[in-house]
Amino acid sequence: MAENLSLYKIFHTVAKTGNISKASKELYISQPGVSKAIHRLEDHLQTVLFTRSSRGVSLTQDGTLLFQYVDSALHALETGEDLLLRNHSLGISQMRIGVSTTLCKYLLLPYLQQYVQQYPHVRLTISCQSTYQTLSLLEEDRIDIGLVGKTQNLKSFSFQPLCPIQDTFVATESYLNNLSLRSGSSDLFSNAAFMMLDEENITRQYVDSAFRKHNIVLENVLEITTMDLLIEFAKIGLGIACVIREFVQNELQTGLLKEVDLGVSFPSRTVGFVFRKSALQLPCVSHFLRLFD
Q1: pTM for the complete prediction?
Q2: Could you read off the pLDDT of 268-280 as tens digits, one per residue?
Q3: Backbone phi, then psi, for 203, in 5-degree steps?
Q4: Separation in Å, CA 164 to CA 115, 150, 244
């Protein structure tokens, strides 16, 4: 097929001009060269594509059928070339980002809005995954950059810090009051309903590690799939939720939620961008990271 592309181009030009001589001038190929190319294509397809006369050439039935497809194919190629040139002139490129749903909503979105305003011709692909899944996608070269909580296992990836986050537990005051009335005990670990992310989540693993260091066992754990649901369930008084303090600032300030002191210290963690050093060669990635310098 590849070796016949030039033949199809010559065939297309002859069909449009209806004349070997005119096609020769348009293609900057000698008339014998054009005729030879048409004969080669006819031999390859085992059919006759043109009828010849003193006034020029005209398509046969098979030639007319072939012309429809060749014309469509060449038009598609021209459109693709024009689009590439246009994209390059406008600086259009693609950046693939991996991020959890929570970090995307609370941290990434404001920066994405700013980035899109500055670079409107960059196509963005957002893959919402857990931190570990994001790192796997990065390792497989299926994304260019990821927003994750910093872990010990970043391998050879580069890490650019964005901000610290603080794990905390929150509940409504009414839930805590009702819990005290029901249980008559101040032992929250045994009596309260603790709402947490699933055990594969890095936040859950971090908090569980802190509990183990203090020999604390939670008797009643309700696993919730997303941080948003944790916050919403806490707001309607279903239990004590493990959340990121920075993501419930409004609720804490208005008194809708209050922090619950469990007597356990949770050191702050760092969230940032992880990427291969080679990704910095992509202008879209380097421009994006400059927003966070």
Answers
A1: 0.66
A2: 999 999 998 888 8
A3: -65, -45
A4: 22, 10, 10
Comparing CA positions, the residue from 69, 72, 123 lying closest to residue 94 is: 123
Residue 277 near residue 155 (C-beta atoms within 8 A): no
Kind and range of the H or E run holding 126: strand 122-128
Q: Which two tokens stand for residue 226?
A: 């997303």
pLDDT at residue 86, as a whole number: 56
Distance CA 199, CA 190 (A): 20
C-alpha distance from residue 207 to each of 36, 141, 166, 202, 214 (Å): 77, 30, 11, 9, 11
Q: Please, which residues have CB within 8 angstroms of residue 124's CB and are 6 or more apart in sequence?
A: 94, 95, 97, 112, 116
Report the alpha-carbon distance of residue 135 to residue 140 in Å, rounded: 9
Residue with tokens 């101040």: 186
Q: Which residue has 């050191």 as its token pair?
A: 267
d(CA 132, CA 281): 25
Angle at 269 between CA 264 and CA 271, to 5 degrees: 155
User: Any idea what DSSP says for residue 47?
Assistant: S
